[in-house]
Amino acid sequence: MNDRPDRVSVAVLVSGAGSNLRALHAASLTADSPFRIVLVISNNSGSGGLAYAADHAIPTLHVSGRTHPDPGALDAELVRQLQAHQIELIVTAGYMKKVGPRVLAEYAGRILNIHPSLLPAHGGPGMYGAAVHRAVLAAGDRLSGPSVHLVTDEYDEGEIIGHQEVPVLDGDTPETLAARVLVAEHELLPMVVTELSRRLRR
Ligand code: GRF
């Protein structure tokens, strides 16, 4: 629960390692941070993100096709949990599932996603992980970098809230480029969440 109501209550949805969750959590612990992470949700019970949250006394929740075979029931359960935790802002950070229509309706304009390319370039269905960086290299782009955007019912299509440019270097592989972009993700995401949280409290 949020013991500091002056701060915006954030839920983070993760599927994998959770390095963006860690960056966000570190930022939330600074004295003047306008937000707190009060819930971490994952569809993957073995995700590094869930383990990190549990280690840091952040409430966690595992909700997946296994716990809720019916997508509508899963969507409804997410809304119920988000409301029970009085969540005001949702961040999907490496969350590999689509957010359902009920969550989208309940949190319209308050769900952020981080994507590892300069959207609208190299987004959309199937564009995640190494596929994104492979596409950047194949296109011969000289610039890449993460984007933070609002989540809608189409992959990577909502309003772009912020991005950070990262150079593509000669000899880059999808792995070297991904690593450079990830460093920028860890700067951009806390910056955008901080800014948006300040705006929500104004
Ligand atoms: C990041 O590259 C993010 O842009 C993408 O998935 C990756 C998640 O990494 N959506 P992590 O789980 O935060 O380490």
From TrEMBL:
Keyword Transferase belongs to the record: yes
GO molecular function: phosphoribosylglycinamide formyltransferase activity
Catalytic reactions of this protein: N(1)-(5-phospho-beta-D-ribosyl)glycinamide + (6R)-10-formyltetrahydrofolate = N(2)-formyl-N(1)-(5-phospho-beta-D-ribosyl)glycinamide + (6S)-5,6,7,8-tetrahydrofolate + H(+)
EC numbers for this chain: 2.1.2.2
Sequence positions that bind (6R)-10-formyltetrahydrofolate: R66, N113
Keywords on record: Purine biosynthesis, Transferase
Record function comment: Catalyzes the transfer of a formyl group from 10-formyltetrahydrofolate to 5-phospho-ribosyl-glycinamide (GAR), producing 5-phospho-ribosyl-N-formylglycinamide (FGAR) and tetrahydrofolate.
Site entry (Raises pKa of active site His), positions: D156
Record's keyword annotation contains ATP-binding: no
Pathway: Purine metabolism; IMP biosynthesis via de novo pathway; N(2)-formyl-N(1)-(5-phospho-D-ribosyl)glycinamide from N(1)-(5-phospho-D-ribosyl)glycinamide (10-formyl THF route): step 1/1
Protein name, UniProt field: Phosphoribosylglycinamide formyltransferase
Family: Belongs to the GART family.
Taxonomy, superkingdom: Bacteria
Sequence ranges assigned to domain Formyl transferase N-terminal in this UniProt record: 10-193
Catalytic-site annotation from UniProt: H115 (proton donor)
Enzyme class: transferase
Stored InterPro entries: Formyl_transf_N (IPR002376), Formyl_transf_N_sf (IPR036477), GART (IPR004607), GART_AS (IPR001555)
Binding residues annotated for N(1)-(5-phospho-beta-D-ribosyl)glycinamide, in chain numbering: G18, S19, N20
